[in-house]
Automatic annotation (TrEMBL):
It comes from Quercus rubra (Northern red oak). InterPro entries: PP2-like (IPR025886). This is Uncharacterized protein. Pfam families: PP2.
Length: 131
Protein backbone atom coordinates (compact mmCIF):
# COMPACT_ATOMS: atom_id res chain seq x y z
CA UNK A 1 0.00 0.00 0.00
CA UNK A 2 1.34 3.42 -0.90
CA UNK A 3 1.70 5.87 1.98
CA UNK A 4 0.44 8.59 -0.40
CA UNK A 5 -3.06 7.12 0.19
CA UNK A 6 -2.81 8.03 3.90
CA UNK A 7 -3.17 11.38 5.66
CA UNK A 8 0.16 13.17 6.18
CA UNK A 9 1.57 13.97 9.63
CA UNK A 10 -0.50 11.18 11.20
CA UNK A 11 0.27 8.19 13.42
CA UNK A 12 -1.31 4.94 12.28
CA UNK A 13 -1.70 1.47 13.76
CA UNK A 14 -1.95 -1.76 11.75
CA UNK A 15 -4.30 -4.48 13.04
CA UNK A 16 -4.55 -8.10 11.95
CA UNK A 17 -8.23 -9.16 11.87
CA UNK A 18 -8.57 -12.92 12.23
CA UNK A 19 -10.31 -15.94 13.73
CA UNK A 20 -8.89 -19.20 15.03
CA UNK A 21 -10.47 -22.56 14.36
CA UNK A 22 -11.02 -25.02 17.20
CA UNK A 23 -7.93 -26.87 15.99
CA UNK A 24 -5.62 -23.85 15.70
CA UNK A 25 -2.08 -24.96 16.38
CA UNK A 26 1.49 -23.68 16.37
CA UNK A 27 1.06 -19.99 17.23
CA UNK A 28 2.27 -20.01 20.85
CA UNK A 29 5.81 -21.33 21.07
CA UNK A 30 7.59 -19.31 19.96
CA UNK A 31 5.07 -16.52 19.32
CA UNK A 32 5.27 -14.69 15.99
CA UNK A 33 6.91 -11.29 15.52
CA UNK A 34 5.23 -8.42 13.73
CA UNK A 35 6.94 -5.53 11.98
CA UNK A 36 5.32 -2.41 10.56
CA UNK A 37 7.14 0.33 8.67
CA UNK A 38 7.74 1.97 5.33
CA UNK A 39 10.27 1.44 2.55
CA UNK A 40 11.62 4.96 3.16
CA UNK A 41 13.69 6.20 6.06
CA UNK A 42 10.91 5.85 8.65
CA UNK A 43 11.20 3.70 11.76
CA UNK A 44 10.19 0.04 11.69
CA UNK A 45 8.13 -1.00 14.71
CA UNK A 46 8.72 -4.62 15.81
CA UNK A 47 7.01 -6.57 18.57
CA UNK A 48 5.98 -10.04 19.63
CA UNK A 49 2.29 -10.81 19.20
CA UNK A 50 0.31 -13.43 21.08
CA UNK A 51 -2.08 -14.98 18.55
CA UNK A 52 -2.68 -18.05 20.70
CA UNK A 53 -3.89 -16.27 23.83
CA UNK A 54 -7.29 -16.92 25.35
CA UNK A 55 -9.72 -14.06 24.87
CA UNK A 56 -12.53 -13.23 27.26
CA UNK A 57 -15.94 -12.05 26.08
CA UNK A 58 -16.42 -8.32 25.28
CA UNK A 59 -18.69 -7.88 28.33
CA UNK A 60 -15.66 -8.67 30.47
CA UNK A 61 -13.94 -5.43 29.40
CA UNK A 62 -11.87 -7.08 26.64
CA UNK A 63 -9.39 -8.29 29.23
CA UNK A 64 -6.91 -10.93 28.19
CA UNK A 65 -5.78 -13.81 30.36
CA UNK A 66 -2.01 -13.64 29.80
CA UNK A 67 0.09 -16.79 29.67
CA UNK A 68 3.26 -17.08 31.73
CA UNK A 69 5.20 -15.35 28.92
CA UNK A 70 4.03 -11.75 28.51
CA UNK A 71 3.55 -10.48 24.95
CA UNK A 72 3.65 -6.90 23.76
CA UNK A 73 0.30 -7.19 22.00
CA UNK A 74 -2.78 -9.32 22.71
CA UNK A 75 -5.90 -10.11 20.64
CA UNK A 76 -9.20 -8.48 21.48
CA UNK A 77 -12.66 -9.73 20.61
CA UNK A 78 -14.55 -7.40 18.26
CA UNK A 79 -18.31 -6.97 18.22
CA UNK A 80 -18.46 -8.59 14.76
CA UNK A 81 -17.02 -11.84 16.16
CA UNK A 82 -13.53 -11.46 14.70
CA UNK A 83 -10.38 -10.99 16.77
CA UNK A 84 -7.97 -8.12 16.23
CA UNK A 85 -4.42 -7.62 17.35
CA UNK A 86 -2.21 -4.60 16.90
CA UNK A 87 0.81 -5.45 14.78
CA UNK A 88 2.50 -2.09 15.23
CA UNK A 89 2.38 1.64 14.65
CA UNK A 90 4.03 4.01 12.21
CA UNK A 91 4.10 7.74 11.48
CA UNK A 92 3.19 8.88 7.97
CA UNK A 93 5.24 12.02 7.39
CA UNK A 94 3.58 12.69 4.04
CA UNK A 95 5.01 13.94 0.78
CA UNK A 96 6.75 10.64 0.07
CA UNK A 97 5.55 7.81 -2.11
CA UNK A 98 6.81 5.01 0.15
CA UNK A 99 5.27 1.57 0.46
CA UNK A 100 3.85 0.40 3.77
CA UNK A 101 5.32 -2.97 4.78
CA UNK A 102 3.60 -5.22 7.33
CA UNK A 103 5.03 -8.60 8.29
CA UNK A 104 4.03 -11.37 10.67
CA UNK A 105 6.68 -14.08 10.90
CA UNK A 106 7.90 -16.95 13.00
CA UNK A 107 11.02 -18.59 11.64
CA UNK A 108 12.86 -19.72 14.77
CA UNK A 109 11.15 -23.04 15.38
CA UNK A 110 9.74 -23.76 11.95
CA UNK A 111 6.74 -25.52 13.50
CA UNK A 112 3.65 -26.35 11.48
CA UNK A 113 0.86 -23.82 11.93
CA UNK A 114 -2.79 -24.33 11.14
CA UNK A 115 -6.21 -22.89 11.93
CA UNK A 116 -5.72 -19.16 11.36
CA UNK A 117 -8.43 -17.49 9.25
CA UNK A 118 -7.40 -13.99 8.15
CA UNK A 119 -10.04 -11.42 7.23
CA UNK A 120 -7.47 -8.72 6.50
CA UNK A 121 -5.30 -5.96 7.89
CA UNK A 122 -6.83 -2.67 9.01
CA UNK A 123 -4.83 0.56 8.97
CA UNK A 124 -6.33 3.17 11.32
CA UNK A 125 -5.13 6.51 12.67
CA UNK A 126 -4.26 6.41 16.35
CA UNK A 127 -6.17 8.78 18.61
CA UNK A 128 -4.48 11.82 20.06
CA UNK A 129 -0.94 10.83 19.14
CA UNK A 130 -0.14 12.91 16.04
CA UNK A 131 3.26 14.55 16.09
Amino acid sequence: MSTSMLSPKTNYAAYLVFKRTDRAYGFDDPPPRASVGTTGVGEVHQQTVGLGLSVMEPNQHDQIVPPPQQHASHPKQREDGWLEIELGQFFNEGGENDELQIRLTEVEAGNVKTGLIVEGIEIMPTKGQDR
